[in-house]
């Protein structure tokens, strides 16, 4: 079917060019024979007048019956001097040839334009079909195989189509490999977290029993170091518990099983709740939170998990703020997105740390003691799962800045 269409288009081009060529040739021949006829007639009349001068007035009088107004100067030709022109010597058949030549020229031009328009329309249709195919693959509609008859055709776009198909097939394979690797990573995290859970719980219970025994027994001045060691064990256990919880949370995020209850939430309320959860730590660090009250700014987000993401960011800023300093927050909204900024008055990020800040388990050289390098990665994952972005940079005047954008669409 496509071959037939191509042949029709080719025939249209050939026919239109042929008509134009024939029309142009006919017009040139008509002009040539008209000029030839005029010169012959003029030569004949000159010879008659030369031999019979008395016939001059009679001949010119007869010829004058065919006179037409001429735009050419009369002194160039005897006939032109009496008002004749080249077209006056064309017979009726010659005029018909000229008419047909003009009609053929116009028909050829029209056919050429129609054929060109049809070819352009066909190309646009082909481009649209390939665009629909790529969009369909991106949306997961129809797979990557070219099964539709609109695509399985041979034309000038066939090579481009083959390259697009190869690229989409490679991208699909890469995507499948990435999804498989992510699922494996999520499953491994989940398994590791559960493997940690049992010994951590067992150790925690054992420590509690020992603590109870020590409290009931009377040791006097003996084993005064025992409570200290138990406190150290508790500290490390708390760290292991945080790691276990973080791994479980990350595995849920990676697998897409984290349930988000998204609804309209006020940003100022979110920031205040997050800072309230850090009051004890901020008091110990002698750092304050500065959150200016704004009008109602609503975002579509999960209250608890978004608050968890903000707590991680605010805690990171707090840990890098000198005593007596403050962590600042603000927010603003426009038709495209809602922006939340959190920044500190510390020394800012190290330049080599900025590209890797949100990598899992990455700890910069200025990371706080006891951290596991997963808080920022979790914050980024939570925010991005709610149509948002999270970036970090240093402020020109000093200090580190986190910027969140929740997009409206």
Describe what this molecule looks like in 3D.
With about 400 residues, this protein is α+β, with helices and mostly antiparallel strands. The chain folds into three domains: about 1-140; about 180-255; about 260-405, 2-Layer Sandwich (Heat Shock Protein 90). The chain has ten helices and seven strands. The chain is elongated and about 160 Å long.
Q: What is the SS-derived class?
A: alpha+beta
Mean pLDDT: 76
| CATH homology group of the largest domain | Histidine kinase-like ATPase, C-terminal domain
| Topology order in helix (H) and strand (E) letters | HHHHHHEHHEEHEEHEE
Strand content: 5-15%
Please name the defining characteristics of this protein.
single chain; 409 residues; alpha+beta; Heat Shock Protein 90; 3 domains; 5-stranded mixed β-sheet; two-stranded antiparallel ribbon; 10 helices; 11% strand
Present the secondary structure layout:
Blueprint: H1 2-51, H2 56-63, H3 78-81, H4 92-138, H5 158-216, H6 225-255, E1 262-266, H7 267-276, H8 279-285, E2 288-290, E3 298-302, H9 303-319, E4 326-333, E5 337-343, H10 375-384, E6 388-394, E7 400-407
Parallel strand pairs: 2-4
Antiparallel strand pairs: 1-3, 4-5, 5-7, 6-7
Summarize this structure briefly.
It contains ten helices and seven strands. With 409 residues, the chain is an alpha+beta fold. The protein has a five-stranded mixed β-sheet. It has a two-stranded antiparallel ribbon with strand order 1-3.
């Amino acid at each position: 079917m496509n071959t037939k269409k191509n042949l029709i288009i080719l025939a249209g081009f050939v026919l239109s060019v042929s008509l134009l060529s024939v029309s142009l040739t006919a017009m040139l021949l008509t002009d040539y024979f008209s000029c030839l006829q005029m010169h012959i007639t003029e030569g004949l009349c000159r010879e008659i007048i030369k031999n019979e001068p008395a016939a001059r007035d009679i001949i010119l009088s007869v010829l004058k019956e065919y006179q037409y107004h001429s735009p050419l100067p009369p002194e160039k030709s005897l006939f032109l001097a009496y008002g004749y022109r080249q077209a006056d010597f064309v017979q009726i058949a010659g005029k018909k040839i000229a008419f047909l030549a003009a009609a053929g020229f116009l028909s050829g031009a029209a056919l050429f334009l129609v054929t060109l328009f049809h070819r352009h329309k066909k190309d646009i249709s082909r481009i649209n079909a390939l665009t629909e195919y790529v969009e369909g693959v991106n949306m997961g509609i129809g797979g990557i195989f070219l099964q539709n008859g609109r695509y399985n055709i041979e034309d000038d776009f066939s090579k481009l189509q083959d390259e697009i198909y190869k690229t989409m097939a490679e991208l699909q394979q890469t995507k499948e490999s990435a999804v498989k690797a992510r699922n494996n990573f999520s499953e491994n995290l989940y398994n590791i977290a559960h493997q940690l859970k049992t010994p951590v719980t067992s150790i925690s219970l054992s420590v509690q029993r020992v603590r109870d025994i020590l409290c009931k027994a009377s040791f006097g001045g003996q084993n005064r170091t025992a409570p200290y060691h138990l406190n150290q064990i508790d500290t490390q256990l708390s760290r292991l518990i945080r790691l276990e919880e973080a791994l479980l949370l990350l595995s849920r995020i990676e697998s897409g099983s984290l349930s988000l209850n998204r609804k309209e939430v006020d940003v100022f309320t979110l920031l205040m709740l997050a800072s309230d959860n850090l009051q004890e730590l901020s008091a110990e660090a002698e750092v304050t939170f500065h959150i200016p009250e704004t009008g109602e700014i609503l975002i579509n987000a999960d209250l608890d998990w978004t608050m968890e993401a903000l707590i991680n960011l605010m805690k990171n800023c707090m840990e890098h703020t000198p005593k007596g300093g403050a962590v600042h927050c603000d927010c603003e909204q426009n038709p495209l997105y809602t922006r939340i900024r959190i920044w500190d008055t510390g020394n800012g990020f190290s330049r080599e740390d900025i590209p890797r800040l949100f990598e899992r388990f990455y700890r910069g050289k200025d990371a706080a003691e006891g951290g596991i390098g997963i808080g920022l990665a979790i914050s980024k994952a939570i925010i991005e799962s709610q149509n948002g972005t999270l970036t970090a940079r240093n402020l020109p005047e000093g200090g580190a800045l986190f910027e969140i954008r929740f997009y409206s669409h």
